[in-house]
């Protein structure tokens, strides 16, 4: 008997829809694998996750939701979907696979018991110093029971201790997907975000933890710390004091209070708050670090140095790697100020050596190849006929150069002008560059994909960035972006903002590299941990800047740090004129300008100019053979 035509039509329609779904899925997966999904567009990853979930591909959906949450930690829908997927994966995760007899014991109990055994084993491995084995055990535990929040949290903490922040962030997001009320996970997530310099998101995460449990002491201390680092001293002090009402003997909170008063210039109150802890004989890292920040104002640096050396000594109780790094860098700073240069260099070297083991190694060959690709993509031939945005905005001022080359000082001088807002280090240009393959609809990665750019796309991308600047300041005539590494993106900047101003900060190569080596950067800049890498990185920076000078027509001014120090008013006037503004005397009193400076140079820009940093490398000359060799290499 022939089939009823309407039923046949329905069947054909369903087959067509299934085929379309498969094609859509394949296209989406291809985009994901080829990196064409915009890396900073959380919704794109979320949508793909929903699609994969509808196609019964929970593992792939889980990764998409996790990526969406890494980009946008407060993405509630993504967290809800992730929780659904984790609970789905928890069902039958071992029983059928391992042939367990579930008649004797229910499957959920088997999962719980097995996962707990693995967590217990992991804790024992950690106690024995077997971190890698502990990590394996935690990973097995979450494989056995994907909705086991405790295992995800413990794995995250272990990854955090090893500096693997992105992976730790995924673990904390998993905990919150399973248990949205976990204030501990919000606190830990805030710690991971803070170490990635994602200040606003970290503050949001800490505040969420406070809402869930106002009596959780640690989150008040952590929130106070990040607020202090951002210059929000009044609320920081409030948080530290509240923590002390919950726990009057909390050392980190007391040290935080002292750090706030030191920042406010009230050195006597700061010292009085630390004195009971200093006198107790029970030495503590947080007290030592607060004392190190304060000691030069009260002429007690010898005591601070001795205390930190004892904490790093062989007879001291064990402390974490992160704390050891902080102590080594602060000891280096104090010993440098005391002209104990060999001892200072030894501590800086030890701090950098510890960090090398906690971060992804810098690959100089890959870095040089990446610079090759930028130079090739933005060739003179391409730039001579490349499409540009039609906007003539002069709102952005891009301040670029090597870290520690004077970018913060230049921004502070400009931001002291009443028509200029200091935007700080903005990551937007890097995000725009990363998103270009998806925006341009090509499988070519950046920078090769720049060949496909159009004037229309330039307008869209430039408008997005300008809207971001207007979020920072609605009425300023100029907004600075002092992300030093934007020197990688000057070709893209020239296409998007043909009328914008670029200020290139230059400093003596040896002073620049040594200052980077002596700086405990919060995240990234792994080239700074080794003098040879530093020299090679500097040479690639010079090579790229020489290329930009030859091929770009965007207005660019070079400011030499040493000349700015020697001729502050002359150079400041030239910079203001270059930016198209009339002169204002306040630019000479930049150190009086009240604004948050959340970079390594926050202390320097709050003081009048001084010449001590020029020629600093001479104090360490006999340690700098590898750096000089790398800088001179052909």
Descriptive overview:
This protein is mostly helical and 634 residues long. It has 3 domains: 20-90, Serine Threonine Protein Phosphatase 5, Tetratricopeptide repeat, CATH 1.25.40.10; 214-359, Tetratricopeptide repeat domain (Serine Threonine Protein Phosphatase 5, Tetratricopeptide repeat, Alpha Horseshoe), CATH 1.25.40; 364-632, Rossmann fold. Helix content is 63%, strand content 4%. The protein has 30 helices and 5 strands. It has helices at residues 5-33, 42-54, 58-71, 76-90, 95-98, 107-127, 131-144, 149-161, 165-178, 183-195, 199-212, 217-229, 233-246, 251-264, 267-279, 285-298, 301-312, 321-337, 341-356, 364-377, 380-385, 407-415, 428-440, 455-472, 490-496, 509-517, 531-551, 561-566, 568-578, 625-632; strands at residues 396-401, 420-422, 478-481, 501-506, 556-560. It has a 5-stranded parallel beta sheet, sandwiched between helices. Helix 2 (42-54) runs antiparallel to helix 3 and helix 18 (321-337) packs antiparallel against helix 19. The model is unreliable at 1-6, 12-22, 94-104 and 595-602 (pLDDT under 50).
């Amino acid at each position: 008997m022939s089939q009823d035509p309407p039923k046949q039509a329905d069947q054909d329609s369903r087959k067509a829809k299934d085929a379309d779904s498969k094609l859509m899925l394949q296209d989406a997966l291809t985009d994901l694998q080829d990196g064409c999904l915009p890396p900073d567009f959380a919704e794109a990853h979320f949508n793909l996750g929903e699609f994969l979930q509808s196609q019964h591909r929970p593992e792939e959906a889980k990764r998409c939701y996790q990526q969406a949450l890494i980009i946008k930690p407060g993405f509630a829908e993504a967290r809800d979907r992730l929780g659904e997927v984790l609970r789905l994966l928890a069902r039958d995760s071992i029983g059928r696979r391992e042939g367990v007899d579930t008649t004797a014991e229910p499957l959920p109990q088997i999962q719980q018991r097995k996962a707990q055994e693995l967590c217990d084993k992991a804790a024992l491995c950690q106690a024995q110093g077997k971190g890698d084995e502990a990590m394996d055990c935690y990973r097995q535990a979450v494989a056995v029971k994907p909705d086991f929040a405790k295992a995800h949290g413990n794995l995250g903490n272990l990854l955090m201790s090893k500096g693997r922040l992105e992976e730790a962030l995924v673990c904390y997001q998993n905990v919150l997907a399973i248990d949205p009320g976990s204030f501990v996970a919000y606190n830990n997530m805030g710690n991971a975000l803070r170490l990635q310099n994602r200040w606003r998101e970290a503050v949001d995460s800490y505040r969420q933890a406070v809402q869930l449990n106002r009596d959780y002491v640690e989150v008040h201390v952590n929130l106070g710390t990040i607020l202090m680092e951002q210059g929000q001293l009044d609320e920081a002090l409030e948080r530290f004091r509240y923590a002390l009402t919950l726990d009057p003997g909390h050392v980190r909170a007391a040290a935080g209070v002292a750090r706030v008063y030191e920042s406010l210039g009230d050195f006597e109150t700061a010292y009085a708050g630390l004195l009971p802890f200093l006198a107790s004989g029970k030495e503590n890292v947080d007290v030592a670090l607060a004392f190190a920040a304060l000691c030069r104002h009260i002429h007690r640096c010898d005591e601070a140095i001795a205390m930190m050396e004892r904490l790093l000594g062989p007879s001291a109780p064990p402390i974490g790697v992160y704390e050891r790094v902080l102590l080594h860098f602060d000891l280096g700073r104090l010993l440098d100020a005391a002209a104990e240069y060999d001892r200072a260099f030894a501590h800086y070297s030890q701090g950098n050596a510890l960090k090398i083991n906690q971060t992804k190694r810098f690959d100089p060959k890959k870095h040089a190849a990446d610079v090759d690709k930028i130079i090739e993509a933005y060739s003179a031939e391409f730039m001579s006929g490349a499409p540009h945005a039609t906007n003539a905005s002069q709102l952005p001022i891009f301040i670029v150069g090597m870290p520690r080359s004077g970018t913060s000082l230049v921004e502070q001088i400009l931001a002291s002008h009443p028509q200029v807002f200091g935007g700080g280090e903005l990551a937007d240009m890097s995000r725009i560059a990363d998103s270009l393959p998806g925006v341009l609809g090509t499988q070519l990665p950046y920078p090769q994909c720049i060949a496909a750019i159009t004037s229309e796309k330039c307008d869209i991308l430039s408008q997005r960035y300008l809207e971001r600047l207007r979020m920072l300041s609605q009425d300023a005539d100029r907004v600075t972006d002092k992300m030093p590494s934007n020197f990688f993106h000057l070709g893209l900047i020239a296409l998007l903002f043909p009328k914008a101003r670029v200020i290139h900060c230059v400093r003596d190569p040896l002073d620049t590299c040594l200052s980077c080596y002596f700086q405990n950067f919060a995240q990234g800049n792994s080239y700074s941990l080794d003098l040879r890498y530093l020299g090679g990185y500097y040479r690639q920076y010079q090579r790229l800047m020489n290329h930009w000078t030859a091929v770009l027509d965007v207005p660019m001014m070079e400011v030499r740090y040493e000349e700015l120090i020697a001729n502050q008013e002359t150079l400041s006037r030239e910079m203001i004129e270059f930016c198209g503004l009339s002169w204002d005397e306040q630019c000479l009193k930049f150190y009086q300008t009240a604004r948050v400076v959340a970079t390594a140079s926050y202390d320097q820009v709050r003081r009048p100019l001084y010449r001590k940093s020029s020629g600093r490398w001479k104090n360490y000359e006999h340690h700098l053979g590898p750096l000089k060799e790398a800088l001179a290499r052909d």
